Automatic annotation (TrEMBL):
Protein name: Redox-sensing transcriptional repressor Rex
Function: Modulates transcription in response to changes in cellular NADH/NAD(+) redox state.
A Pfam family recorded for this sequence: CoA_binding
Keywords assigned: Cytoplasm, DNA-binding, NAD, Repressor, Transcription, Transcription regulation
Record-linked InterPro entries: CoA-bd, NAD(P)-bd_dom_sf, Rex_actinobacterial-type, Rex_DNA-bd_C_dom, Tscrpt_rep_Rex, WH-like_DNA-bd_sf, WH_DNA-bd_sf
Superkingdom of origin: Bacteria
All residue ranges annotated as the CoA-binding domain in the record: 79-180
Amino acid sequence: MTVRPLPSTTVARLPGYLRSLGGLASEGAHTVSSDQLADLVGVSPAQLRKDLSYLGAGGRRGVGYEVDGLRRQIAQVLGMTEERRLVIVGIGNLGHALATYSGFADRSFELVGLVDTDPAVVGTTVAGHVVRHASELEQVVAEGAATIAILTTPASAAQQTADRLVAAGVSGILNFAPRTVRVPDDVEVREVDLGSELQIVAFHARRLSAEN
């Protein structure tokens, strides 16, 4: 399979394509047209075809794309054909909810460790894992061979924790902490600010209400 360099905007849309293809597969569909798949995802057919062209995926005229084949192709590009191990640092309400998320395995992620500093949380069992103290962070990463971390610490602890994760060998961080963290160029970090996302939703909802 020939994969051209992928724009970040295309990468951001691939999980949506994969999710929609999974829904089609569960309904017994074997093929899907670009128009149908684009409608499910909420993009234009032209945009979908352009995105999939980066993967070397081309539909057949009059038939469309093979659902299972395209699923495998996108999964391979996203690195889902090999299991990725992750740790969660910060087992408050959000961290606890993420730890019990049932979708990790379906997306080839294995949760291998939980870390916190709260004495009331350390030593408890969440989703089959004993929560370890933050002083053992490097050991937890090494024992689980984790390469990805989910960060849900308070803002004051976010950067120091990110630094320790990077030093321990983590190469990807999903950061829910209310502070941007800085990492080396060879480490990927994605910032998730729920408050900001809600503000954006509220802005657009108000605009649409005013227009109607």
